[in-house]
Amino acid sequence: MNxxxxxxxxxxxxxxxxxxxxxxxxxxxxxxxxxxxxxxFPFENFNDLKEARFLSLTVxxxxxxxxxxxxxxxxxxxxxxxxxxxxALSLGWHLGILLNLAETKKWPLPIFERICREVVEKxxxxxxxxxxxxxxxxxxxxxxxxxxxxxxxxxxISGRKTFASLAPxxxxxxxxxxxxxxxxxxxxxxxxxxxxxxxxKTWDTLGMRATRSDxxxxxxxxxxxxxxxxxxxxxxxxxxxQGWLLHIPACYLGIAIAARNEAIAFAKTYQPNSLSHPIAxxxxxxxxxxxxxxxxxxxxxxxxSIADQWDRYPEKRTEMKEELATVKYIATNAAVxxxxxxMRIVGGQSLFAENPLQRYYRDVRAGLHNPPSDDITVSIVxxxxxxxx
Length: 389
Fold this sequence. Notes:
- By secondary structure, the protein is α+β, with helices and mostly antiparallel strands.
- Helix content is 48%, strand content 14%.
- The chain is built from ten helices and eight strands.
- Strands 1, 2, 3, 4, 5, 6, 7 and 8 form an eight-stranded mixed beta sheet that branches.
- A hairpin with a 5-residue loop joins strand 4 and strand 5 (185-191).
- The longest helix has 30 residues, at 283-312.
- The chain is globular and about 80 Å long.
């Protein structure tokens, strides 16, 4: 077993999930360079995930899923990301949404049950499409410009969404729109087959190129009245701490672990003719290796500790918003530092396209722009500290 996991795998079930994810990650690693260079969605990887029944891991057992915990979810995310970060992040959105819906019960039960059974039986994929160019991240409170209005007992939705990860592969889009009649914002569940829904290939980015987070265009898309699955102004939608978003830091820590392993393997074997031994024996290289592991230990122990608390003490979840945000803050910044140190150890060879470190360097920076951003985390932590009695 990888020495980085001996403290984190506590049960036979966790070990089994880790091994299943590791075998998949080994396959994904072989394809990662091609998908990154071509900026294509990793359909092969998702076919493997479907065959392994991974898309239903967070579906409740009552609907045929495995109902994994948040802690187990993070183990899988971190492991898959070591093979391919874009695949892990994409998978995380789907699995995380299902985990969140199972915990919060925000959707009408018949619709949630139907979707869960489709995920189990057909391994369908879903994700949210909330971001818009004019509003930026929904986490900052901007209202969508996408509109929904009732016509003849149906909803008609029009707008454009950005950053729609997995867009080419999705079976369902969860789209936020402002309801013209009331000014309220709701989430609508829209199948990919809906007339007027199309994907525009806009995703040409520095990192996470294979997530294919393209634009979704909705031109008078008509859906049934029950497609409105959630009102974002409802009590259930407000103030909820979102443990499922820890899939984001887990993914970037997985990328950092892959970079760490690459650098250590290089240091153990690379011996320039100016030395009588591999560079792993050079004090400065040893210091950098230690720094990588210190960053990873502090971030990972914090992340898994918070996930364990989330699983063990559901009654405390409403008080964990700041801790969850801080995990993301610490983990994504640690991941950036670890990849930087790995590249400094390997040196100029890390810049070549054939070296995975340059991909890790580009991919890991995307974590800084996933929610919540650092400034939001700093603000809410300061608010709690200053407003506490």
